């Protein structure tokens, strides 16, 4: 079990929690070597395979893997922590069973290495928004601080990066097992794979930087705030913080040319914006947009009616124009289960729904907002974790991706957890080759270039404006156009291969189960 414990410790060190990300290249190698050994790869056919050890060892690695990502649930939804850990921890355990199946069916050599790598990628795809509607949770996110290694995401998405990371881990495990000249050949293969990823990264990064240099430069501003939930629930304090946001927005425009957009955080106005009671706030917003000659994208609530005629709030973004009335707004589509909506809403009887109602109504469509100089692909809070959702905005014509977030509501006092969305935002920028602007409460407001580089960021725990020049790009990447087709194809190949191995295993009477 030592190899599994070592992999678990390395996964924690490599995760964004500790941030020793280079270790991800070898973090799973001890566990992979353990899977091969416990599945009987080096043993005689008479020796029973230690399935229990593979499953428990894989589960231990999975618990470390999941805990380093979902520890923040202890603050947000404590009751969710153990079910989430228990579910996602199954991923390495399933990998161990997949390796055991392959070894039992007689798979050896290079084919076993490909199978191990492909199995992990298929497991990630199954546990994602592609199939189960879960937020994307992949090994590729560990490399978010090394954009040069992420450039293949514009073709295969984050799962393509995970495949490469896992391939390096598998080759590292094989290098450890190999002896003599064989070890040198495996090291050379590892270097060739790494050089291919780096070569593509350098070529694509240079090409995208050329497009940015040749394109127009559009100034955009993002507000960053430091407001607690208690302050948002107090009407008097809400109005005082609104006055402060208006002041900061106006000051940013003083003595400088007009920007194409100013973005405020999610629910920066925690009220029903179109209500007659808040008409003065709406008028002040319109006046600020007119005086600064800059549209303001503000987070607030809108009101809709349910099928039963009951009023329900929507977590929304409103684009306040320089002149005229608000005509562009976005309603959050991917709601947070348990916090914003009841995930069992379509299954439970009506009387049960009265006890556990959905707080928010789900938006029906995702389309860019027309900001004049920019087409805005708005996604709110944890919608950043869903590659397919953000991709749909780019494919529909968005040339600037805008994330609005209220990090304090999710992470509370766990300040280290505020960096959790950053790997996802970096990947969304690269996948679609779009600038990403983020406006957040308490967390960082920032700008990310289409190469994955963070070009501007705000100071922590302060209210102010961060500004940068963005280039609206129109390129439709392979990922933007076709999404996870490569991942789907890999999954189908893996399922077909699995079926073939099961049949082959059944034809081997010498295998002891």
Strand order of the largest sheet: 5-4-3-2-1-12
Structural category is: alpha/beta
**Alpha carbon gap, first and last residue:** 21 Å
Task: Characterize the quaternary organization of these chains.
Answer: single chain
Q: What's the average pLDDT? A: 88
Strand fraction: 5-15%
Order of helices and strands: HHHHHHHHHEHHEHEEEHEEHEHHEEEEHH
Q: What about the largest sheet?
A: 6 strands, mixed
Which stretches are low in confidence, meaning pLDDT under 50 for 5 or more residues running?
none
Shape by Cα distribution:
globular
Q: Which bin fits the share of residues in helices?
A: 40-55%
Number of strands: 12
Q: How many DSSP helices?
A: 18
Query: Gyration radius, to the nearest Å?
Result: 25 Å
Structure overview:
The chain has helices at residues 2-14, 29-38, 51-70, 73-76, 78-88, 90-104, 109-126, 153-177, 181-214, 229-232, 235-253, 279-292, 350-353, 387-395, 407-411, 421-432, 478-482, 485-506; strands at 218-224, 261-263, 296-305, 311-320, 328-331, 369-370, 375-380, 400-406, 435-441, 446-448, 454-457, 464-470. It is α/β, with parallel strands linked by helices. The strands form two sheets. The chain has a six-stranded mixed beta sheet with strand order 5-4-3-2-1-12. Helix 1 (2-14) packs antiparallel against helix 2 (29-38), helix 2 runs antiparallel to helix 3 (51-70) and helix 2 crosses helix 8 (153-177).
């Amino acid at each position: 079990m030592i190899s599994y414990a070592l992999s678990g410790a390395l996964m924690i060190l490599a995760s964004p929690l500790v941030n020793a990300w280079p270790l991800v290249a070898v973090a799973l190698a001890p566990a992979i070597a353990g899977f091969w050994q416990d599945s009987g790869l080096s043993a005689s056919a008479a020796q029973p395979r230690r399935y229990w050890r593979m499953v428990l060892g894989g589960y231990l690695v999975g618990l470390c893997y999941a805990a380093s990502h979902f520890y923040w649930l202890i603050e947000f939804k404590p009751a969710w922590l153990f079910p989430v850990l228990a579910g996602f921890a199954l991923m390495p355990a399933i990998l161990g069973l997949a390796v055991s199946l392959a070894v039992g069916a007689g798979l050896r050599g290079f084919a076993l290495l490909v199978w191990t790598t492909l199995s992990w990628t298929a497991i990630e795809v199954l546990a994602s928004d592609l199939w189960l509607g879960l937020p994307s949770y992949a090994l590729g996110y560990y490399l978010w601080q090394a954009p040069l290694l992420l450039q293949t995401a514009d073709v295969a998405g984050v799962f393509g990066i995970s495949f490469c990371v896992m391939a390096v881990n598998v080759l590292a495990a094989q290098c450890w097992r190999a002896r003599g000249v064989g070890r040198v050949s495996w090291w050379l293969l590892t270097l060739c794979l790494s050089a291919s990823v780096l070569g593509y990264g350098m070529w694509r990064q240079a090409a995208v930087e050329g497009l940015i240099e040749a394109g127009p430069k559009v100034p955009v501003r993002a507000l960053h705030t430091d407001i607690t939930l208690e302050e948002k629930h107090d009407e008097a304090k809400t109005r005082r913080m609104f006055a402060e946001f208006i002041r900061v927005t106006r000051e940013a425009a003083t003595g400088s040319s007009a920007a194409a957009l100013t973005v405020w955080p999610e629910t920066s106005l925690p009220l029903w914006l179109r209500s007659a009671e808040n008409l003065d706030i709406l008028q002040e917003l319109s006046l600020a947009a007119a005086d600064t000659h800059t549209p303001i994208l503000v987070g607030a609530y809108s009101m809709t009616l349910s099928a039963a005629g009951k009023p329900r709030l929507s977590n929304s973004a409103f684009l306040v124009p320089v002149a005229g009335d608000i005509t562009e707004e976005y309603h959050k589509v991917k709601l947070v289960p348990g916090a914003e909506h009841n995930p069992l809403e379509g299954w439970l009887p009506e009387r049960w729904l009265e006890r556990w109602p959905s707080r928010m109504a789900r938006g029906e469509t995702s389309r860019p907002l027309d900001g004049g100089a920019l087409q805005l692909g708005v996604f709110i809070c944890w919608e950043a974790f869903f590659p397919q959702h953000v991709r749909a905005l780019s494919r529909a014509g968005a040339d600037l991706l805008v994330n609005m977030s209220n990090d304090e509501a999710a992470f509370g006092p766990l300040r280290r957890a505020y960096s959790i969305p950053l790997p996802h935002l970096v990947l969304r920028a690269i996948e679609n080759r779009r600038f990403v602007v983020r406006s957040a409460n308490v967390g960082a407001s920032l700008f990310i270039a289409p190469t994955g580089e963070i070009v501007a960021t705000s100071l922590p725990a302060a209210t102010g404006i961060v500004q940068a020049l963005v280039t609206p790009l129109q390129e439709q990447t392979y990922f933007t156009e076709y999404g996870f087709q490569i991942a789907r194809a890999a999954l189908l190949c893996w399922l077909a291969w699995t079926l073939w191995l099961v049949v082959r295993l059944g034809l081997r009477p010498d295998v002891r189960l």
